[in-house]
Design a protein that fits this description.
222 residues; Immunoglobulin-like; 2 domains; five-stranded mixed beta sheet; 2 helices; 18 strands; 48% strand; rod-shaped
Length: 222
């Protein structure tokens, strides 16, 4: 029976622990080094159907060759996606898109990503939830107005208007829901209530409106 001597056992243990990583030990096993994605599009915003150039500066610690792989979850990649720079055409639909590049060498890989904004030319979608159309309310009481406002590029501001007159007030906000409380100081009768939303980037406005009826208070009558 062959016996493994103590020095041989030590060498065998070292081989088993490190042998499979020997190549990495020789080559340091370092991944590529890279900065952030850069672009010629100011503020990482690209107009619908316009093109923009993106690039990244990367190096390999061992001086080897780097492999690039670009991906975007929308729009169109023009030309190769396997170089250190990429030409991209924005889609016609506005919104936020993510551009990602994976950089690899013989040892490892890293990735970098950035968000690209494409302005939407569509108006925000606004819907008044409360009060119901043609509601009757009492003069000088508090009226709660609830509405939703959504847009691909997010909402810049939501405003309350009564009879085409802006009513300064700050709504409570929860996700896409907005809530105003209006002290009814208008004269008795029918009035138009309007919620107006302005989109970010483009300033395009959308709105929803309805009629309410204000009942006056008769003095001396409860």
């Amino acid at each position: 029976m062959n016996r493994i001597t103590f020095p041989a056992a030590i060498l065998l243990l070292v081989y088993l622990c490190c042998g499979c990583n020997l190549d990495k030990l020789i080559n340091n096993g370092d991944p590529p080094d890279a900065g952030n994605i850069k672009t010629d599009a100011p503020g990482f915003a690209v107009q619908p159907l316009d093109t923009a150039l993106f690039w990244i500066e990367a190096t390999d610690p061992a001086g080897g060759t780097l492999v690039y792989k670009w991906t975007v979850n929308g729009g169109e990649i023009i030309g190769s996606s396997g170089e250190s720079e990429l030409t991209w055409r924005a889609p016609i639909r506005g919104g936020s898109y993510t551009i990602n590049v994976e950089i690899s060498n013989k040892e490892d890989k890293i990735s970098r990503s950035e968000v690209i904004k494409v302005p939407s030319l569509a108006a925000p979608k606004v819907k008044i939830l409360e009060p119901a159309p043609d509601s009757y309310v009492v003069q000088y009481s508090d009226l709660t107005i609830q509405a939703t406002a959504v847009h691909e590029n997010n909402i810049q501001v939501v405003q309350l208007w009564i009879d085409d007159i802006y009513t300064p007030s700050t709504p409570a906000v929860h996700n896409d829901a907005y809530e105003f409380v209006w002290k009814i100081d208008a004269a008795p009768g029918s009035h138009e209530l309007k919620v107006r939303a302005v989109a970010q980037l483009t300033g395009v406005a959308g709105q929803d409106s309805l009629m309410i009826h204000i009942e006056g208070i008769v003095e001396g009558k409860k």
